[in-house]
Write a structure and sequence with these properties.
With 91 residues, the protein is mainly alpha-helical. The protein has one domain. It has five helices and no strands. The radius of gyration is 17 Å and the shape is elongated.
Amino acid sequence: MGVPWSKVVVSSLRLLKSNRASRGASLPIKVLKTEIFSIHQKDLVARPGDFGADFRARALPAVLFTANDYVQATSEHRRMVAEMAPIYRQL
């Protein structure tokens, strides 16, 4: 049956409050925006008007991230997943 859900939530919250986890707060922004921009780059350049203002506002900031930013963010993401693995194994 596994560990009670409440124990998993409490353990997860403790980990998320750690310094390492708080440093990772910008990971989704760096990784997801970069990936979204990469997927749509050709069409955004060729036909920017085909994309809504909301999408452009979310995707275009990715041009400010360097390859180094992306690599560091994905490396930190892997470390965070590894830290959470023991909690998820209890489920």
